[in-house]
Give the backbone structure.
Amino acid sequence: MFVSLFILTLLVVTAISIARIRDLWAAVMFTGIFSFLGACWMLILDAPDVAFTEAAVGAGISTFLMLGTLALAGKKEKPTKGSPLVPLIVVGVTGAALIYGTLDMPHFGDPNSPVQTRIQPSFVEKSQPDMHGLPNVVTALLGSYRGYDTLGETAVIFTAGIAVILILRRSSTEAFGSGSTPKKGSK
Amino acid sequence: MDSFPIIRVVAKLIIPYILLFGFYVQFHGDFGPGGGFQAGVILASALILYGLVFGLPAVKKVAPPKLIEKLIALGLLIYAGTGFLTMLCGKAKDGDHAEHGRAMANFLDYGALDHHFLPGILPHGQHLGIFMIEFGVGITVTAVMTMIFYCFAGRHPETNSASSTEATP
């Protein structure tokens, strides 16, 4: 209980500092910290697979990608033009709507919530004989029962990679020539 | 980064363990948390760390971009190929399939991969199918993340502005 409150407080503090800070470099570091805290929080909620992904992707790769973007785009945020009133109203209304939406959600760990009653028991019971004793139900779900979905996700990652290559690679000789360094190519 | 000996030494010490952990997550994903996606990201992060500390040319020697390009497609091919393999090499065992008189198993129906070769040592059936698709996912994710790193790190802002000022007059 204490640990949960501690992590949630830290999450709020980190989120506010990200919103307040003007140095983009520090803001990117704070987003990495935010992702790590989120991973800790998911671990407390008994979702190690999600926590794993959050720590590896959210805190690791995306922080690095943001830093790479900053190296190309500059470290300082430009001063905002116009009054901050309209964005504040939009954000306030959206946040209020989201909080209003959570009021209808079942409490955490509620045994009568649809998540606990509908799908999960049958999969947990079925997966042991189906998978020849493969113990990880999450992997069994993702890989076998929802194999088509995971194939689609892999195709999405593939497409994203191809898109990044197409957008960011300027010429085949400069970025990918193994012999010549980029400086020689640009000269 | 030539002038940061501590970073270089620490990176050299850490990178093997990151790689080992990545492979552990990849091949132990059937039993514990983890799987191809997480393992791919961890393996790619080891490559990225190497690139950050020792420079882009060094990491391009280890993982040539042309190879990485092909690995992006290979992982997805392994995944989809597993699906076609199950279609080809198995007969549907479920009763409903047999009623329709189909000779083939479904796409990605790993039950078709059952075999009795070295039971207990080699995975078989569903386990083998999951192992293969996770392997494909891991390859694709590693390659895509590494390729994104190459694309970002291969661009130089100063040469960008220089070329644009050259282009404007």
